Amino acid sequence: MIIAILAPLLVACFIPLLSKIKHRVHTGFFVLLVPLSIFTYFVTFVGRDFSTQLQVTKWIPSLDINFSLYLDGLSLLFVLLITGIGSLVVLYSIYYLDRSERLDQFYVYLLMFMTAMLGVVLSDNIFVLYTFWELTSISSFLLIGYWHYKERSRYGALKSMLITVFGGLSMFGGFVLLYVVTGTTSIQDMIAHPEIVWNSAYLPLILAFILLGAFTKSAQFPFHIWLPDAMEAPTPVSAYLHSATMVKAGLFLIARFSPLLSASEWFYIVVTSVGVITLCWGSYMAVRQTDLKAILAFSTISQLGMIMAMFGFGTKIAIFAAVFHILNHATFKGSLFMIAGIIDHETGTRDIRKLGGLATIMPIAATLTVLGTFSMAGIPLPFLNGFYSKELFIDSALHLEGGMSTIASMLTAAIPYLVVFGSIFTFVYSMYFLFGIFTGKHKADQLPKPAHEAPFGMLLPPIILITGVVVIGLFPNLVNGTLLNHAQSAVGNTLYDVEKIKFWHGWDAPAFQVTLLIISVGIALYLTRKKWQHIYNALPGSFSFNRVYDALIKQLDRTSEKITNAYMTGSLRLYMTIIIAAIIVVTTTVMMVTDGFVVKFDNLADVSVLELVVAGVMVVAAVWTIFTNHKLAAILITGVVGYGVAILFILYRAPDLALTQLVIETVSVALFLLAFYHLPQLQKRDDSTGSKIVNATISIGFGALVAMIGIAAHSSSGFAPISDYFIKTSHTLGGGDNIVNVILVDMRGLDTLFEITVLGIAALAIYSLIKLRNDKEAE
Amino acid sequence: MSNLAVLPIIIPLLSGIIVAFFAKNVKVSRVLAALFTIINALVAVYLTSVVFTDGTVILETGDWVAPFGIVLVADPLAAVLVMTTNIIALASVFYAPFALTVKKEQHYFYAFYFFLISGVSGAFLTGDLFNLFVFFEVLLMASYALIVLGGEKVQLRESIKYVLINLFSSILFVTAIAFLYGVVGTVNMAQIAERVQEVEQTGILTTIGILLFFVFATKAALFPLFYWLPKSYIVPNPVVSALFGALLTKVGIYSILRVFSLIFVYKISLTHEIFIWIAALSMIFGVIGALSTNNVKLIIAYNIIPAIGFIMMGIGMFNEPALSGSIYYLIHDMLIKTALFFIVGAIVYVAGTSDLKKMGGLIHHYPVLGWLLFVSAFVLAGIPPFSGFIGKLLLLEGALENDKIIIVIIALLTSLLILYSIIKIFVNGFWGEQRHIEPTEKKPLAGFLVPVAFLLSFSILLGVGAEYIYPSIESISTYLLNPELYIDSVLKE
Q1: Structure confidence at residue B1 (pLDDT)
Q2: Residues 6+ apart with CB under 8 A from B391
Q3: What residues of chain B lie within 8 A of the CB of A583, using their CB?
């Protein structure tokens, strides 16, 4: 299985070579072999006696990250969709994409996606799943941005990436939490002992994290906004990623984890309500669109919401209907996308207002669309697969076993009405799509190209898909027992009796009556749609979640600029103020919390008068520097402080240090005076009193803090210092009687070596600075 | 005892002196610099392999026994970081001739570069707190030299802030060392650790510890001490920015890791709790900074700060997975930051501007550069299967083991925004119509790209080949959690 997953990626490496000969053989023909052979491999697993498979290839065993590939009914269903629809889409793309396009990039991205998606559905290891999950987002980003010279493509690509990666990261958070709680990275191991997760206090958080991942990926309300913009991608991509496969990854995730997470009542409440709202909003908004692909995008959103809701219901029949509809939706929606691409390709426009009356010109496309849209609308005809799953959906909505709490029971009561609402609009947009393109007046003058039927190669993939619609419609048990049964048992533990699936349940079947209601209201609404179209001006009116997103992004850029500019002013004074204030606050707090301040008077030496005088002079001089406005005075007074230190060294009998200090002070005063001419005039600062107070507080506070730490440090000393060793061994081991010298050149010679280096670097730096500037000025 | 521990410090020091004499002859100094860097890198690899097979390598300099003399301690952590430093040095030395003008090369770039490497390696290897200060001075002085190399007005303006803030923290460093010496009577880190443990880290020791933390935090550019970083990192040449971004802040964060895993580990509930908050704030403010600008160099420079936040978060959590995560992330970030600064250097070179708003369509002429940036964006954001992912996984795992949910959420959001800040460069700069300022013929870029690819190959190896690396990192983290191991290897030979 691992070969099957990685095969597309490996083939992708050779695509650039193959595209060299693209003018003789379209690169797509080579690519087609990949999904086709994987499909053929996996199709052999289908059958009533299918049993699950687990294959493990080690990757990072020490982190429990391995390619453990788990094939059960659910993943098999998805694998077949990915490779099956994938083959058809590649075939379609051969005719859709001209050889002058950058075919190599297109197919590399597409194959990358194929690997990613197969990886998502087959991985049992949560972190490997996450890896592939992000890879689907990345390849989707690249495919949406394929025509990146268009501004809308770039916008759509970035938007889809931000939203899906946001969800992906959230899901990752949930996975890490699951790993910490359960101690395993295997989904099946977690499901085997679900009580660990059920009893964890983190269950709601895990649920929230993972649901966010699923909702963003599957374009659920209000994260659905990226999907319509993703339609900027070439149509084969829309048919493949943004309808049949990638957007269903969220559904897959919910299905995969529902044995673990559905124990929480919030699972029922959140998944169901989000699903149903998405269903309603998507179908409602679809009728408003004028771009064919936008109609299909909102239709996809709505259908995804419907499947999501069914997983939320969690009843036997709902789960069965959900997996059934995943398959059905892929067949009819895939073909409708391809037809939208055909219309675009052959007429030059996707604007439904310019289209019409194409039934006679494009009869095959028209026939296919009739079957596709009728199946989508759930019209009760015995050869449409969409009807079966739709009726099961309505049936399940009417027989909910929702939770116990007030919210849950309120939700349970409201669902049937919302479902009917969503289904009515589903009917309306299906008819709108069908009749808008093919009936009415043909407006040849508005079309950029004269319309004609598409080449056979382009029609073949939708024909195959619509054949699937009809075959499943006629013989639902062909897939029920062999495939869907295994898929539903992977989600819920109990089995819905698939033998109950049949076309006719009698006039009195409640779901059938509801279907009739939906169709009759739907027809009425479709015929009168011009009259109520203006309702969209009230709801949503000018409001849209797109605007929320745009505003959010804009605010993100703007606010971050504002915040950053507020403190990154370039003013060193401000920087130092904040830095020192932070040090004062945190360090003082720590000192108080830990009782760090101690004073002891028993280890102090006597203070002589001379010391007092010197200290006094230094204090006065230090304070004076602040108040003087004369730069010469400031330089000299600073010198006084330095010389004071030197005198103290003398008093403490450290002649070497005193000498060093004297030299340093003399040199620095001399340097200051040398540069005197270039120093700026000190001006009387007219700071506000407020800032003066702040500055004074911070200076005094910092001084006090350092003094307190110094006092406390001295009062806490209790260990023998290592200096005793230096005194003892200076002569015997170091061969010198001046301890300071021995320390500098021997005991801590390494320090001295590198301090000299520092001076050397400084000298070299100054030389290079001056030299380079001089050279420049000379030029 | 083995002189091996001092070689990664002394080789670059001598190399720096030698190349300074050949500075005027650019060809010779390039060859010499490359040669010495390769030698040093080989030594670093050898040192690492010795450390991982035979254990910590100690050198008591001048044969003055610990704790009285200065000891160099090449333990697994130090060895790994020295090796990473050398990988970066290797990439830089080959990138430099393309990025620098001959004038700058002649004005002792290679000498300063070697002194910087020497200081950084010394900081990683020393086992003596005062000696650490000395090596900080070496690397800072070299960095002052590099930042003003070229002598542009803007370089001087930004470097004065850089120098002053760093000078302040250096003063604070010496002060803190003096206080610490006053309490425990030693500057040998192993002995400090031993004595701090003996008195159960009294209040004053914790206070001094926090003071030291602020010293290192200034170097590491943690919140709220990072002001000096962004603008001063973008004024020098990209190769200098890369060295700074990869090495300087990392020395700061390494020092925090060392000091707060070896010495001050007895009041974790207070100190490390503070770290977690500072980590969170660094992530937030850092990434906000990265989003606030259209200057591509500045975007990368700001991105240093949240990365430091991630590493800090692991130190704050102080458990096995989190520390492994910090170390992994540290290595990862050193590599990818260098790569990103290199990439941005190349972008500015070909586009003739660092303003994103004036760029577009670069991918038509420079596809390889574009894809390298694209991959780097995901590496940086910690998307699998690259190096950042392993580090982040471990960090989050460690955080959740400590039930720190909020910082996990902040970290995840930060990752998203990091990705956004970089991918913006790709979408706006590389996609779209061509419209950069100099639309003349294609400029040759291979010299820029090879070092980038070299670094990225390590990033991929650290991710895809984590199985070969992670066990070693895990062993470092267990080692850090047992300070006795360090103390014994230094004091009880």
Answers
A1: 67
A2: B310, B325, B326, B328, B329, B330, B332, B382
A3: 172, 211, 214
